[in-house]
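Q: Hi! Curious about what tRNA/rRNA methyltransferase SpoU type domain-containing protein looks like structurally. Here's the sequence.
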Amino acid sequence: MQCSTSFFTPLPTITPLHNHNPNHIHNYQHFRTIKSFNLRYNIDDVLLHTESTSSTPPKIPKLITSTSNPFVKHCVKLRQSSSYRRSHAFLLLVGSTLIRELHEFHVSKRDHETAIECLILLEHAEVPEGLGEIPVDRVYVSSLVMRKLAGVQSTESIEAIALMRSPSSFVELNDNQSKIDCTRWFGCSSTHRILVLDGIQDPGNLGTLLRSALAFKWNGVFLLPGCCDPFNEKAIRASRGAPFQLPIVSGNWDHLEAFKNEFQATVMAGHPDSSNDFKPVYKLSQGLANSLTNTPLCLVLGSEGSGLSEMAREFCELLSIPMAGNFESLNVAVAGGIFMFMLQSDVPDEITH
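A: Let's find out. The predicted structure is below.
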């Protein structure tokens, strides 16, 4: 899908409600190649334009009942198109549970600058539990519009949608940024455990891997070329919103090599075979995991169809999961969960005792 070069068509210039405080912006924001408006939508401008073209329009309620509304079309494109999301640096989060959990995450981090721009709610319905305290604009829509926005046939399970800015914890690196200070790519002091995904194209698998990485307290995720968008609607559902809580960096093998050298990290790749003519394949075991506890580690997982790329096999040490059953390999999301559980640096006491 071709990316539109305008924000809304044919909307007038959108009036900022306020400027962002630069102190709240991620300290590595300048690495991002996507465009960021650094302003908030003035929803009144959008609605005034769509409801009336007169110079002195009447008071307009924040209600949309037509799927032809430009704001609705814009939001649908955000849900459907990766290039459109990146060009506008906005996305949709569908479902009150995901929105509430994201808000609770920001509150727990004492992050006063919410990423949510506005809440889209069903008309004549109560505000879902936990969303009433979110201090953002609200747009009420008909059930027809809600179905269009959410991409579902029924609104029974869809009570709310959030329009939100792309998280500043998501960073895209240019090809010429391989020698830049790697220590701040993930925006945290600890980069002890990094999950590296090589050509993972299925959004369900990618989302599940992100969710597991967050559950086992891995410090971030590095996306190599060929991976699907982590903010794809299916990936977000499978991840249960993990991309908003986990630092994610998108780059290439040169960037990963620079990161490896900076942190003297061990880079291991999951491999389905316990024997390989190319190079030795280590077997995952508790002893091996214990030997890596204090070692910075990057775990590389290959694509669902073709497995590890040639570059991954050359660049990484290979690691397999011993299996007693008569299967050659596991689904990448299942294998990744096992690897991340065994190789997590903060192993719960109940596992080791």
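A: A fun detail: The longest helix spans residues 96-108.
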